Amino acid sequence: MLRAVLVMILILQGLSATARAEAVIFGASRLEVITQGGKRHAFAVELATTPEQLSQGLMFRRDLPAGNGMLFDFGLPRQVAMWMKNTLIPLDMLFMDRTGRVIHVEQYTVPGSLEPRGPSEPVLGVLELPAGTVRRLGLSAGDRVSHPMFERGR
84 phi and psi, to 5 degrees? Predict the structure, then answer.
């Protein structure tokens, strides 16, 4: 009986977390990552711009298909540290300055980790991609992300 109650509590907590995750609606956009060698890689991204969106990010997601990601727009350059609390999938992260230049890369972040990730320099945005994307496409610091959010920062 006690086991059944514990299972029910876990199920209800999972449903509650899913409901919270679905309560935040994200915008959609497209962007390109342009490598230093000139290769272009297109991605469909969800946009995180509001405090609620920036806070939730990809929490509670069970998958992130190749070619997709989430772009965090902080509005103004600032120092940020990303963590993986309630994030169920490993991710790669690109940290960009106000011009869209990638200044820091994190690969294969650990789901659920509370370890802060990020550079010491201010960034305007972070692009989260499925783990392995950076290695597969040969992305690195110095590459550039092309998206309208970086046009206003020039």
Answer: -115, 20
